Amino acid sequence: MAELFERSIPQSARSADWTGPTTSSPRREPPRHLIQSAIEGGNSMSNLAGVVRLLKKEQDRLTRELNRIGAALAAFGKAYGKGTGTRKLSKSARARIAAAQRARWAKFRESKGGQQSKVVPIRGKRTLSAAGRRKFAAAQRARWAKVKAAEKKTA
User: Fold this and answer.
1) Is 122 part of any domain?
2) For the chain, what is the domain count?
């Protein structure tokens, strides 16, 4: 089992002189000195408890770091981020915008020189005259009579 640990841990990481986190390097060296003591024949359960303790301390440190980053992002996000809410315009501002739009449309219509686009009316629902309904009814009766006659021949 010790050989497995020795092969999985590089020689540079096996030294017991790990001094803890440094702020100058972006990547941290993991605390491998506890694993090394298990290789040399130390009590593996106390070693495991030490590893778990170190991992929990590291997790707490990373959680604090993430909280600080989140606070910084929240501060900058309000100042520089896209606003997701809707803007509330005053009545006078909306009136100015509407007046400007009406003026733009008036200018556009004026530049057309009186040429109005052809307005196509929407046709209403078509209705059938009484004579047309009679023709349809007679044709339908004839179709049904033909179907019933075919059924009598086969039966």
Assistant:
1) no
2) 1
In angstroms, rounded to a whole number, what is the distance separating the alpha carbons of residues 34 and 42? Answer: 9
* pLDDT tens digits for range 92-142: 999 999 999 999 998 888 887 666 666 677 788 889 999 999 999 999 999
Query: Closest Cα to residue 12, out of 26, 24, 39, 30?
Result: 30
Domain limits for position 48: 1-6+33-79
For the entire predicted model, the pTM comes to 0.28
Q: Is 57 among the domain residues?
A: yes
Q: Sorting pLDDT into bands at 50, 70 and 90, what band is 4?
A: very low
Residue 37 lies inside a defined structural domain of this protein: yes
Within 40-128, residue ranges assigned H as helices are 44-80, 91-111
Residue 78 neighbours by CB distance under 10 Å: 9
